[in-house]
Design a protein that fits this description.
Layout: H1 2-16, H2 19-55, E1 61-66, H3 71-74, E2 75-76, E3 79-80, E4 83-85, H4 90-99, E5 103-118, E6 121-130, H5 134-137, E7 142-145, H6 150-154, E8 159-162, H7 164-170, E9 180-183, E10 186-194, E11 215-219, H8 220-227, E12 230-235, E13 238-243, E14 248-253, H9 259-270, E15 281-284, H10 286-329, H11 331-339, H12 344-380, H13 390-416, H14 420-425
Parallel strand pairs: 4-13, 6-11, 8-10
Antiparallel strand pairs: 1-14, 1-15, 2-3, 5-6, 5-9, 5-14, 7-10, 8-11, 9-10, 12-13
């Protein structure tokens, strides 16, 4: 240890004799390490953001959703139907529950775009007819009052729970609890308000992005009675009518292992010419999407990490170049040390210590810069996610030290193999 410590002090002294050259050599490692950590942080942040969006749907959930059929599928006998009837029926819901034994919970949902009014205040939002389980399935938290209950649904109550933005828009200065809002031609008593929730991103091609902050939640049975199943929209003088019973069913199984076996059974309960010949129902399995997102994230991280590692390689080449020049400059010194009894391993050790010092200092500075850069990016681009992991820091620093040893080994061995007499004659 004493010999290594003496070699370290001698190496530092030698490197400080050429501060500019040593500093420029270190910069190659600094930028390489910083690039590896920053790129992996951005890749990890983007990956985690996407995976959180999918996890919000529930890894043990299976989502069956109504989709508007294509123009060809809409035509009936060569002519488009006057009333477009599509999507999940209550009969489908009952059949799925009766046929699939692994289902632990089921959440039926009916979504209707409506203007929500209260005196002179109004908001174009989404009326969601659902049950008491909706808040748990979608991770909604109640800010004031309460959420819907099973009794509200059974008794067809005209109760409503407002989302955060809906509440602020309709009741800017008042407490909404106990007040009334108008949906269509009916009035609903507000029993609760939910906290703000981040909008969900669109998943795959089957689920659109959802803004949970502009919703009104009412009991499903109340929605069925008050709004019916037929929605008429008037646009530019033309009348369009759609008939949909349920917009979505979210089915939950007990464990992740039950997801894959359950999927084909659910499909058999609603697919086929007998039930939905127009292909107006689609299924989304969040667990499958999560696995695909994780695979993509790993590939993305490998690609970015490889690109960033190239800059580390360039830094290593710079270290080798400088150390070869140093060996040439210090040929006479090497000859003197060998003449005084230094062994070849001592010479090799001395030059290796110097290269490790260069790469180690560069690695430490690069780690600091690599941790700071993602924070700066997130500060100026708030939508961009970045997450620095301990494994990426250790990986980048370890590679920087390994590159120092690898690229310093040849110059060190070249110095050690010099003939002492020829080295002493060197001018």
């Amino acid at each position: 240890m004493r010999r290594i410590w003496r070699g370290l002090k001698l190496g530092m002294k030698s490197l400080l004799l050429h501060k500019l050259r040593s500093g420029l050599t270190v910069l190659g490692i600094v930028f390489g390490v910083a690039a590896v950590i920053s790129m992996l942080a951005i890749a990890e942040g983007s990956s985690r953001d996407a995976q959180e969006q999918i996890k919000a749907l529930g890894a043990t959930n299976i989502i069956v959703r109504s989709v508007k059929p294509s123009d060809e599928a809409q035509a009936s006998g060569g002519r488009p139907a006057r009333i477009l009837n599509y999507g999940i029926k209550y009969a489908d819901y009952d059949r799925i529950l009766a046929t699939v034994p692994t289902i632990k919970k089921a959440l039926p949902i009916r979504e209707i775009r409506k203007q929500i009014r209260r005196l002179q205040h109004y908001l174009d939002g989404r009326v969601v007819g659902t049950t008491q389980d909706y808040a748990d399935f979608n991770m909604l938290q109640v800010d004031r009052g309460r959420f819907l209950t099973a009794a509200d649904n059974e008794k067809y109550q005209n109760y409503a729970v407002l989302a955060a933005t809906t509440s602020k828009t309709l009741f800017p200065y008042e407490d909404p609890i106990g007040q009334s809002v108008k949906l269509g031609s009916d009035y609903y008593t507000v029993v609760g308000v939910t906290k703000e929730r981040e909008s969900s991103a669109g998943v795959g091609g089957s689920l659109a992005a959802q803004d949970f902050n502009k919703d009104v939640y009412i009991p499903l049975n109340t929605c069925r009675v008050r709004f019916g199943e037929k929605i008429v929209n008037s646009r530019s003088g033309s009348m369009e009518a759609e008939e949909t019973q349920l917009s979505q069913i979210t089915l939950q199984v007990a464990t992740i292992e039950q997801v894959q076996p359950t999927v084909p059974i659910i499909k058999a309960a609603y697919e086929g010419e007998k039930f939905h010949p127009k292909k107006d129902v689609e299924m989304t399995v969040p667990y499958d999407l999560l696995l695909a997102a994780q695979r993509t994230a790993r590939q993305f991280s490998i690609i970015l990490g490889t690109i960033a590692a190239i800059s580390l390689l360039v830094g290593g080449i710079g270290i080798m170049n400088i150390m070869l020049a140093t060996v040439t400059e210090r040929t006479r010194e090497i000859g003197i040390r060998r003449a005084l009894g230094a062994k070849r391993k001592d010479i090799t050790q001395q030059f290796l210590i110097e290269t490790v010092v260069l790469s180690g200092v560069g690695g430490l500075l690069g780690v600091s810069m690599g941790i700071a850069i993602p924070q700066i990016i997130v500060y100026f681009i708030p939508d961009q996610k970045a997450f620095v992991t301990g494994s990426s820091v250790m990986l980048a620093f370890s590679i920087s030290v390994a590159i120092g040893i690898l690229f310093g080994l040849y110059p060190a061995r070249r110095a050690a193999l010099m003939d002492p007499i020829e080295a002493l004659r060197h001018e």
